[in-house]
Every structure is written in structure tokens, then in C-alpha cells.
Amino acid sequence: MKKKLLATLLCVAMSASMFAGCGDSGSDDAANNQEADAPADDEADAPADDEADAPADDEADAPADDEADAPADLSDANIGVFYYTFSDTYIASVRSALDSQLDSLGVTYQDYDANSNQTTQNEQIDTALQTGANLLIVNIVTSGSVDASQAIVDKASSAGVPVIFFNRAIEDDDNEGKVLGSYDKCAFVGTDAPEAGHLQGQMIGEYLMEHYDEVDLNGDGNISYAMFMGQLGNAEAIYRTQYGVEDANKVLTDGGKPELVYFDETNPDKYQVDQDGNWSAMAANNYMTTNLSQFNEDQKNMIELVICNNDGMAEGAISALNDKGYNLGDGSSTTIPVFGVDATDAAVQLIADGKMTGTVKQDAEGMASCIAFLAENCASGKEVMDGTDSYNISENVSNKIYIPYSAYQK
Fold it and tell me: How many CA atoms lie within 13 A of 272 on its CB side?
């Protein structure tokens, strides 16, 4: 009976501290206090023979084991999920997957759309904290800004709640670990930014080596390319823009072919960027439509390859090509190779239809699953990074998790 009473008291103490936050030691303190108060002397004075003769099954059936195996009570979780914009195609896929994961956990949550405005996101976070949010999941607007991310961490720290950043970098390379190391209840789930660029560049180079003559529409021995960049200052965009070309060039030159030639020699940047920073199909469509009015087969200066930082921009470029009779997927039209990043459902369908050539898969389901795992840790009162040994964790920052990319072609 004394053991059953002790287990019951332990259960009450643990429930009271269940959602004190990631890494909170409240439940351990409560357990220690209860054990200290337990009548140990009485048990010590009990006849040894009685204890020896007690049935082993009684101890095995003690409710402590059942309670340890029982699912954590997450009913007190109140989660604010903050997206830089709902309109981003990849982010929409993460949102859908994460909503499903959080629904399955049975937690209370609310999604917020910052519509690409950092001030709006900051205000949304303030409102969420004031109305009882005890966990923040943040897809920051101003990617790579230490000031913006530190301000959010400071808000979370002041409120004593955990914060999980995802997808968009919160630090630049020179400040890696500065923000994530400033608070023990925060983590980041994202990708190794250069990886997508490397995979895309390798894929482009290999494709061109196999199809060089058919891609070289004007037969001048060079491949003329357009590059659509998602956002200035964004680490993912920077590395995709850089390595998508550099790695393709390495494959080409190693194979005895010349490097890619940017289609517009008057543009020293060698890319066209979405000025709104939305990585949007509309921006790429507008650029490509204008480009094709000046650079086309009739002028013998046709753009022969399109490289995009994401699949949304690839969709926009393909739409512009379709309007001019290219990439119709009917077997009769000329196809300009178009490469993107994300492997969204729309891009996968375009590849299956023969309208798009390849992409790099950014695993939305995997990212959402990892975020939900960390959220469950927090809601259960565990350390935010508890049980993450199987994930790909940064060698430099112990609370940064990378979700791997992979190449995707038909």
C-alpha cells in the first residue's frame, strides 16, 4: 500500500509540472521531495523475511511502470506557428504537413501569416504570448538576420517559453550559433543551404552532357541560361544561385564542354531576382515573358536552359514558355530544360508531363515531422533536443537539425 501511495503522489507531482517548458527540472524536484518525505524508516524496520516472501508480481504490477508507458498529456500545449508567408508553395506544403502532425498530437495551435513582413510577425508573436502561447514555432521573415531572430528569442526567453525556428536561416555563416546558443529552450530545423545548389548543379551538368546538342538550339557550341533568384540576402538563394551554375560548369568542363553563358551579357549579376523576396511564380513569369520577347529562336539568341531557386519560380518560367509554344509535353514542341528546387506536387507533375526536367527535393513531410517531434518534447517537459540522435545534427551547433535534400528527375 505504501508503494501505491508513493506512486500516486509522484503522478500528481509530475502532472503539476508537466508543461513547465523544455528542460524544466520541476518534475525531478517534485519527485525528489516526495521520496525524501516517504516513511523510509518504517520500511527499513520491516522484517527482512516478509519482504523476501512478498510476491514478485506485486512489484512488477506497480502503477509506476504503467504511468511511464502512458502517453504524455499535451492538453496544456498552446502553440503559435508563424509563417513568413502562406503564399510560398513549399511553405504551404510544410504547413499542411505540420497541421496534420499537430492535429495528431492533440495540441492547441494557431497558424499566423506574416505576409513577408517582419514587423507583422513580431506583433503576431507578441499577441500570441499575451494570449497564452507556451511554445513558438517560427519561420522567420528576415532570413539570416541575427537582429531579427535574437529579438524573437528574447521575447520567448522573457516569457519562459521554448521557440523552434524552421526552414529560413536565423544566422549568417559568420554568426553561426550566436542566436541558437543564447537560449537553452530553442532549436532550428532546416537544411544545409549549399547542399541544394550542389545537387542542382550536378544534375544540370549531367543532363547537359547527355543532351548537349539538342539543348544547343542555335548550334553555337554554348548553352545560354537564365537564372531566377528567390531573394537577396537569403542563404538558400545565395548558395543555389552560386552552386547551381558553378557545379554544372565543373561537370561540363570536366567533360570537355564550355561553361554556361548567361543569356544577357548586359546583366553583371547573372540572375534576375524576385524583388519582393517571395520566390514567386509571378516574378519568374514576368521576367521570362520579357526575356523571350528579346531572346528567342528567331533572333538566334534563345535562352536554352532555365535554372530556378525554387519550383514556384520554375512553374512561372514554364508558363511563359508554354505561351510561346515551348515545353508543352506533347512530344512535338521544343523543350527548354527547366530545373527547380523543392519537389512540390506541382513540380513533380510537370516533370511527369515532360514540361520540366528536374528538381531537388526539400522534404516538407520530414521537416514537419521533426518540428512536431521537438514540439512534443517541449509539451512533455523534456529538453527540446531530447531523443534527436538519429537526426542529422550540425557539427558546429548542437541544436541545429538538417533535413537532407535529394535529387529528383523523371
Answer: 27
